[in-house]
Every structure is written in structure tokens, then in C-alpha cells.
Amino acid sequence: MSPDLWMILSFLGLLVAGVPVAFSLALAGAAGIVTGLPPNMLATLGTNTYNSVAKYPLIAIPLFILTGLIFERAGVAARLVRFAQALTGPRHGGLALVAVLVCMIMGGMSGSGPADAAAVAMVMLPSMTKAGYPKPFSATLIAASASTAILIPPSVALILYSIVVPGVDLRALFAAGLFPGILAGLALLVPAFWLSRRHRWEAPESVERPPLGESFKQALPALFAPVLILGGLRSGLFTPTEAAVAAVAYGVVVGLFITRELSLRDLWKLFGEASVISGVVMLIIALAGIFAWAGTMLGTFRELAEWIIGLSDNGALLLVLIMLAVLAAGMLLDAISIYLIMMPILIPVMQHFGWNPVWFGILLAMNIAIGQFTPPVAVNLMVTTEVARIRLEQTIGWALVFVIAMGGALALVAIFPEIALWLPGVLGYNV
Question: Is the pTM of the predicted complex or chain greater than 0.70?
């Protein structure tokens, strides 16, 4: 058996055996080195691990994770919900509309789908259940809406994509993700609103409308956070990594002095939580460096890319096949693992067919977003079903509805690349 097969089969076997992704990548990479390279190449394990994480832009990942945790604990989600309720007013499907809007706004602070899902589910699920929405529907809708965090800047996944793919401007990626993220949210709203009206969930008289002026004032600090991040990037005031620092500082000010729901003791605990989450992410990135180096040295990625290119001369057909493969991977793996495993293979394919790397990155992100609420793994759905205290199996029917809806949004971005590329082009970024 060739070293390539040893490495790939080792990785798949370890995953099936339940070994964590990070260690599966490292052990599979080591297997490839042992079977296909001189034994002294094992000495590169430490260097490759260090080189994978010794990159300045990666500093933004733990900082944006911390930002999401701070805003979640600062009571921002509850204030956004009240403001969204004041905007929409009492109507059939009003709370469904509120859930989608709040998830999208929260995504503009945290950049993380699971964090977004947890914060919004804690606030929205009791109100939606009281208004007559079935818990499986509510949990699935919030999980699907929270997946837009992977598109709406700042996105942790897009930060990693900009590092993995050479020459891609992170600012262009952030700008490119905005309209597809909004489109995905609108695509989820259509079936949610239609189902709410059809089943007569949430009678208008059962929901009280908060005063608009007061709720707007309370939500203003939260609404200003995305403006601060994106405005600072556009003006050149700070780089994406510095934007993450500014977001953390702003979140601390909001939590300690404006909402006053955050104490110094809470802040210390949040530092610990963010460190644990970031440690897991960085461990995956570090150990994936072994797999990536081994695959490059053995020529595994090049051979796989050539095999994919050889499947068809039709770029559109291959794009569909790649999107289906990424969707399947998204149902089993997290976004970071998918980028680290698949991009070394997909970059040559992307270059062969001349696909725009910014547009292609957004398509991948939309696919991974769909995977975040598609069983069997569905990390966002796991969070919301835990909050709702229901079984994951109860959500499968509703999840299928929202998968089709967001799939329609993905198809539009694939057919009309300008949906993603227009804004970064107008802002003068390199696309």
C-alpha cells in the first residue's frame, strides 16, 4: 500500500474510532512520514507544529472568541431581542423574525455559530415556547440562523481561510461575506414566516410590544459593535487583528459600565473559557500542520487535486460535486478542520478553473454553515436542543426545510458571484 493511502486511511480510521480530529491529523501525518519518507523526517514534527500557529493573523481568533463570550454575558442578546420585538410588533411569526435578526446581529460580534446559538437560545426559546412555537422548530430555526455567523464578519472561519489560501485579503473576505450572510438569513425567514402563519403560531394579542425608543437606547451599544469593527477596518484605523482587540475592549466597557451585567470576577472566568475554546482551536491548527506537511511532501494533495480535475472538464459540474463533498464534511466536522484538511486539495482545483478565491471561500463558508445545523453532528443544533431539553432526532424534519432554504441562497451566490464580490470591489479591496 502506498504512503498516500496509509496516511488517508489512517486518518479516516482514527476518526471512525473516535479519536479527536487534532490527534487524528497528527497521527495520520506521522504515518505518512514513516511509510513514505526517511525516518529522520520525524524530527520535523515539532517545527511543523510550531510553524502552523506562529502566524500573526491567528491572534484574532481567540480575541473574537472572547468578544462573543463577553457580549453574551453582558446581556446584549436580551436587549437586541427587545429592540427587534419593538421593530416587528406582534404578529404571526414575529418571534421567528426576531430570532433570525438577533442571530445575524450577534454573529457580527462573535464570529462563532455555537456561541451565537447559545446566547440567542437562552433568551428566545422560553418566549417562543410560550407563544406556541414547537420546541423542535424553535431550536432548529435558532441553530440555522446562528450559522450565518460563519459568513457575517468577523468570522473565525474566514480568518483561517485567509491564512490557508495565499494572497487572499481578509478585509475582502469580511466584506464579501456580508451580503451572502444577509441573503442566507432572508432565505431562512421565508419558510419560518410561512410556517408560522400557516400553523397560527404566536397570536398577535399574546405578545406585548416593547416601547421602540427605550428598547433602541438599550440596544444601541450592541448595534454599534459591528459598526466599530467594520468601520475601523474600512477606514484603515486598524487591521483585522487590531479590530479583534478593539472589539474585546469595547465589549468590556459595555459589560462593566453600560449594561453593568458583567463584573471583574465574571471577566476573569470568561478569560478562562475563551482560553479553553481557543486552545482546542489552536491545537487542531497546530497538529494539522503535520498532516499538511506530510501530504505536501508525499505529493498526496497534488495527486488528489489532479484526480478531481480529471473527473470532468466542466467547471460548473465539478463545483457542484465539491460543494456536495464540503456539505457532507460539514455534517461531520467543524469548519476549522474542513479548511485545514480540504484546502490543500482544493487550491490547485480552484486555480485550474480560475475560480475567484474570495468567492470560492464564501461558497465554502455557506456550505459549512449548512452543515452546522444538519444532523448527525450539527454543532449548533446540539447547543440549541440542549437548551430546549429535546432530542436531536426531533429536529430532523425542520432541519431539512432550512437546509433547502439556505441551499437556495448558496445556489444564488454560486450563479451570481457579484452577490459576494460587489461590496469588496466597491470598497477597493483586492478581489
Answer: yes
